[in-house]
Specification:
The longest helix is centred in the first third of the chain and has 49 residues, at about 1-50. About 0% of the residues are buried. The radius of gyration is 32 Å and the shape is elongated. By secondary structure, the protein is mainly alpha-helical. The chain contains three helices and no strands. Helices cover about 95% and strands about 0% of the residues.
């Protein structure tokens, strides 16, 4: 009786292990298919990126570069503003501090408006 129960328990463990292996095989097949699709998608994206000819690409890159530089200089101004305001306050230049604050507030509003 004990042997029968032991063999029965081991048999159930064996069946559970086999079911797990079957599930793992199905999951790995799905994963391989998803990776294949992702490679195809990346390949088609690379082809789309490479398609524009170099004559039309250069002006677009220059325009994009100008926009990035303009945006980064505005963000730098915002980052530096608190330090400049505190320097003005330390020197009792309250009007300059207020002007710095208002300029930064206006710039922040414009930048946030662009994002939305």
């Amino acid at each position: 009786e004990d042997v029968r129960q032991l063999v029965g328990a081991r048999y159930r463990d064996l069946l559970d292990g086999a079911d797990t292996l079957v599930e793992m095989a199905a999951s790995s097949e799905k994963l391989v298919e998803m990776v294949r699709r992702m490679r195809q998608g990346c390949g088609s994206l690379q082809m789309r990126i490479k398609k524009p000819n170099s004559l039309t690409k250069a002006p677009r890159e220059a325009a994009l570069r100008r926009k990035v530089y303009a945006l980064s200089s505005q963000v730098k101004l915002l980052v530096d503003t608190p330090e400049q305001i505190w320097a003005c306050l330390d020197d009792n230049r309250f009007l300059d501090a207020a002007i710095q604050f208002l300029v930064a507030e206006r710039l922040h509003t414009r930048l946030v408006g662009r994002i939305r």
